[in-house]
Specification:
The chain has one domain. By secondary structure, it is mainly alpha-helical. Helix content is 74%, strand content 4%. It is globular.
Amino acid sequence: MHISGSTILLLFLAFASATILLVLHLTKLGHIIHQQIPDRPHRRLLLASVSFFITFLAVRLLVESITHHIGPFGYVESGGVHIHHLVWGILLLLITGYATLAEAGTGDEPISILISRVLALGYGIGAALTLDEFAIWLNLDAMDYWGKKNRESLDAIVLFGALLAIGTWGAPVFNRLLGRAADDSSGEDCR
């Protein structure tokens, strides 16, 4: 039985997203996250960061399995054309971007908060799917995924992942530093 890579990836990402959301609501770790990380934007950045790295790892494992014929996995094809996973990533980024522009998930109601978190997960997933094939869209050559130029994809993954992590963990530190600097400068006479 042949199962397309997109089906496996979709099932895995749905399972991972549901698990992440359940961890936020049903575990002690989720309780700590709720206490320590403000919902907007830091908790959304955390969700995007976690889904980004999980997706990147899952995609790399899936592609390795397909290329080495491990398991029943196969590439996504339509009419004999291989549809790269960056296509799905771009579509997901377009959907989450449009939903964000339409201000979906900006309210305080529980459904709005859930939408906000799902959008954050979708953004991380879409970014990972797209950036995993950065060498392909930079050089317009599908062989770059496996060549030495694949280093460009890995560099893009590391840099974007670091940006998400900085937004999640660094922003509160920067805000405190900037807030204290603003408080210190506003209360003193500068002679």
